[in-house]
Amino acid sequence: MIGSRTAVTSARTTSPPSAAIPVVPGRGWLGNTVEFMRSPLGFFIDAYHSYGPVFRMDVPMTRQAVVVAGSLADDLLRGDPGDGAERRRDGLFRPFSAEVGVDVFELEGDIHRDLRELLRQPYARSIVAPFAAEIAAVVGDEVDATYAGEAVDLFALTARLSLHAAMAVVTPMSLRNAAPDIQRAGAAVMYAAFRLRPFATLRRPRYRRARRAMQAAIDEAIARHQRGDFRERGRTWMIDACVAATNQAGMRMDLRAIRGACFYALAGTEIYIGRLIGFLLFELLRDRSALRRVLAELATTDADAPLAEVLAAAPFLRAAYTETLRCYPLIPAYPYTAIVDQRIGGYAIPAGQLLLFAPHIGHFVDDHYANPMTFDAARHLPPRREPAARRLFAAFGVGPHACSAQGFVEALSLAIVVALLRRADLELVRPSYRMELRMTPLLAPRRPIELRVRGRRAQEEHVQKDMYTSAEGV
Ligand code: HEM
User: Fold this and answer.
1) Which candidate, 1, 141, 258, 454, has a CA 20 to 30 Å from the CA of 89?
2) How far is the CA of 341 from the centre of ligand 1 (A)?
């Protein structure tokens, strides 16, 4: 259990004392790599507990960083981090722009705002929701084809389901042949961007080949959408939303931007949403009463009801989704660079200093959440609705660079989970297992979590229907 911290409200303060920033002890030239890799989330939580909201660490494959955590990070990011810290220096997010074609990560100011406005359109909740039936079909195919009765790797399943479901939202064309290339290229870029592998890995022929193949598949789909091949179907896939997107400055997305938006949506969904729903299912399957509560909620709506209606009738499932985001912040910290000499939390920070903001460490502080180390979906529901929680919830980041796909993520994640729970009876092979985490490249379980698909609800329904029909026949 983490001890509580005195809330720090001042952000960059001008207060005089310039004590040395506490350093998390490391291991020689390895720095904090071993502890961080052994327990990426625990490392930050424990360091915050011991040293407070500002401390130094050695980050893998980069120079020493100053971590700004909890409510202090939250305050700074909600203000205007552009005053004293920004993203564009040092090429911290270069792989996203150079390799993927998504520039928002490393831009600041007006151009950042304009591009973000464009990107929010294809990444809206409303782009996913009309495809709930297609997503359910993707889930049904996976369950039928591969997994009935077998023990399977939960996170491998959720990653694959997420990628295939996202494909159904991007275009009606099949992108399945490009799946291995999208996975390979996406993982390589993410590993490099998070400094877990050297940038040089992005020059490897294997990666270059995957990137070319991914690009060819997405470009072909974009060309067909632009030609209007699917227009008569009267639907808006993600590519159509990219083509139509415009902003107040009258800008539109060019081919590079559309390709980047789609590639990031596919690879990002596989990596982020795959993990998120893996953690969500892990928690639900560990707590059978929570699972029963979700199944009871889903039983109140029809399988073909609109997603919004299904989710409106499933407050506990939505609370479990929020609690998963609280307990498993997938990115331990976001990098910025100090652009002027300044003070943060009373410490002198020189211009050029690498800063890692970790506002979500506030998720694990008992000033903010009751019993914060425990997964407890009901904390987000009335009558509790832990009030501090809403202000300090930072799973999607805070401020101008906060995730621009939050609605997309919620709709896609829950559409997949709803379809899977309606379709299959799932059981953890080892329900007593306490999950340990590592970075691959985001927060993930250290060992595979095995899942048994015990029976298929859909099949059982057919069996019952057949029995009823034959009984009638008799
Ligand atoms: C579980 C799922 C996800 C989580 C928890 C998540 C979280 C985050 C976080 C923490 C940031 C950075 C905030 C910062 O640096 O201050 C971010 C940025 C971003 N995310 Fe997500 N993300 C998720 C999935 C996705 C997906 C699937 C997409 C694309 C469809 C996406 C698109 C973006 C974009 C474009 C940004 C950059 C925004 C900017 O710099 O203006 N995210 N996300």
Assistant:
1) 258
2) 28
The Å distance, Cα 395 to ligand 1 centre, comes to 9
Does residue 397's CB lie within 6 angstroms of at least one atom of ligand 1? yes
Give pLDDT tens digits for 454-468: 655 545 544 443 433
> What is the distance of C-alpha 442 from the center of its chain?
9
Q: What is the position in ligand 1's atom list of the atom closest to the CA of 265?
A: 30
pLDDT at 40 over 70: yes
Q: Residue 5: pLDDT above 60?
A: no
Give dist(CA 17, CA 162) in Å, integer.
Answer: 50
Q: What percent of the chain has pLDDT over 70?
A: 89
C-alpha to C-alpha distances, 197 to 200, 211, 273, nearest whole angstrom: 8, 17, 22
- The number of beta carbons lying within 10 Å of the beta carbon of residue 142 is 22
CA distance 154 to 152: 6
Give, for ligand 1, the residue of 403, 408, 442 to mutate: max count of ligand atoms closer than 8 Å to Cβ.
403
Does residue 472 register a pLDDT over 60? no
Ligand 1 centroid vs 396 CA: distance in angstroms? 6
The CA distance from 428 to 140, in Å, is 20
pLDDT score, position 379 = 95
Cβ of 218 less than 6 Å from ligand 1:
no
- Our answer on whether the CB atom of 345 is closer than 6 Å to any ligand 1 atom is no
- Domains in the chain, please, with CATH? 28-473 (1.10.630.10)
With contact defined as beta carbons under 8 Å apart, do 359 and 74 qualify?
yes
**Which residue has the least CA distance to atom 11 on ligand 1?**
403
Residue 362 identity:
G
> What stretches of 121-254 show up as alpha helix (H) in DSSP?
125-128, 132-142, 154-170, 179-193, 205-227, 238-244
Q: H or E segment at 63? A: none
Mean pLDDT lowest among 120-129, 308-317, 380-389: 380-389
The amino acid at residue 416 is I
Where is average pLDDT lowest: 327-336, 380-389, 455-464?
455-464
pLDDT in tens, 202-246: 999 999 999 999 999 999 999 999 999 999 999 999 999 999 999
Atom of ligand 1 nearest to the CA of 325: 5
Distance 218 CA to ligand 1 centre (A): 21
Average of pLDDT values for 85-106? 84
| Residue 276, ligand 1, Cβ within 6 A | yes
